[in-house]
Write a structure and sequence with these properties.
Elements: H1 4-8, H2 12-19, H3 23-45, H4 48-65, H5 75-93, H6 126-134, H7 138-149, H8 154-161, H9 165-183
Helix pairs in contact: 2-3, 3-4, 3-5, 3-7, 4-5, 7-9, 8-9
Length: about 190
């Protein structure tokens, strides 16, 4: 069974080469991570051209800062954190990130969480879920992506997005409910 140290050392030689500015190692590391990181960008940003642009800028940052990587975590976690941060920065700059939060409501943190929405497994495909996510508002999609796909908890999401933990939980609950409606064709 692999240990945490095994994951931290994944692509160690490539990273060391990148830290020495070896272009071949940079190309190879990029080749390993470009597609999954593009998918993160696409889930968060919705538009392929934005996803491509943000990913390219993030990889420039990654190679510029790779000498600060010290193998305390895995290289994939470190790259993913940079990618997610660049996506959030992009959304904030474009002022597309909205919380869909109704300030007139009482304290959301005290609300009972909604039960998980029922998804009909019939005709469920990865492509259908992806298309359904693209129909969500920016705020819903970003919180849902960060929580489900990227593995952040609500406290981390609140810190990343500059929102309260209660708002993150509310957004997540509403996003799940809306996605269930979309996937079950109850729009």
């Amino acid at each position: 069974m692999p240990t945490a140290a095994d994951y931290r050392d994944t692509h160690r030689e490539l990273v060391l080469g990148c830290q020495q500015k070896d272009r071949k190692c940079q190309r190879e590391l990029y080749g390993h991570y470009a597609k999954p990181m593009y998918n993160i960008c696409l889930r968060m940003l919705k538009h392929s051209h934005d996803a491509e642009d943000v990913m390219q800028v993030a990889f420039v940052d990654i190679f510029r800062k790779i000498d600060t990587f010290n193998f305390d975590a895995s290289i994939s976690a470190w790259i993913k954190r940079i990618i997610v941060n660049r996506c959030i920065d992009h959304l904030k700059k474009r002022r597309l990130l909205t919380t869909d939060y109704d300030a007139r409501q009482h304290d959301i943190a005290s609300e009972e969480p909604d039960p998980a929405p029922a998804f009909s497994a019939q005709n469920m495909t990865v492509d259908r879920v992806r298309k359904g996510m693209m129909q969500l508002s920016e705020g819903y999609r970003v919180v849902l992506s960060l929580y489900i796909f990227e593995g952040y908890d609500h406290e981390e999401i609140s810190h990343i997005l500059g929102i309260s933990v209660g708002t993150s939980k509310s957004q997540f609950s509403r996003a799940k409910k809306r996605l269930a409606q979309i996937l079950n064709n109850k729009q």
